[in-house]
Amino acid sequence: MTSPSGGNGAQSFEIDTSKPHPARMYDYFLGGKDNYEVDQVAAEKFIEAAPEVRLAVRANRNFLHRAVRHVVAEGGIRQILDIGTGLPTEPNVHQIARAIAPETRIAYVDNDPIVSVHSMALMSDEAETSVVLADLRDPRAVLDHPDVRKAIDFDQPLALLLVAVLHFITDAEDPDGILATLRDALPTGSYLVLSHATVDIHDNDREDAVKVYNSATATLNPRPRGRVLDFFGDFTLVDPGLVLVPDWRPEEAPEPGTPPIGIYGGVARKNG
Fold it and tell me: Which is nearest to 190 in space by CA: 76, 270, 81, 93?
């Protein structure tokens, strides 16, 4: 769950520790240490308003693991474009994919310079892996970035990961246009893996939690299921469709008393 920003040299990427950053807050929710006091304070406010958030981010992360394994093992994908990757958290996407297919190529894209620095340090010895500082709001710049092109061959099927990132794009920033550009760039046989926050299951009773992000570098924009479904365009959802992330091909039953998780997730294929 990270925010999108950056570009192909057109924007400045300075580390801003005066405002909470979604990627660093997400790291805090996961129990990581790559965050600042401003992120910790905001995250604690969010936890107070939405106590299930730590379970939610873990459920989202587990959805990512299962989805990556699916597209590589069952979909035959050997290249992955991960936009809004967030701070490295093991197992990372390249580790999950390469445990199945060691030749898998990965391009990680994020806006936070801290994410970039940590990712580059982690990936320094990883062949067939690129770490790119770029902006989801400018999808053409992402697609044309030379380091993305170094890892990704857009003539061959790939998996595009947009996991817990689109809810940081406002309607005014045209998420439908962003998705259309990205989907159009994917060849037949590619997959879109997407998850997105919602307040559907909480009867929209998460206003205080959503407001926490008003002081962050990107606002939180939860959407109903129908709007999230729109982002898949004419891609074909694989079973079980667009569901709450714990319900997407679960590998174990939820513990009794687990609260509902307000994140939708789905995996869809581009057919010819």
Answer: 270
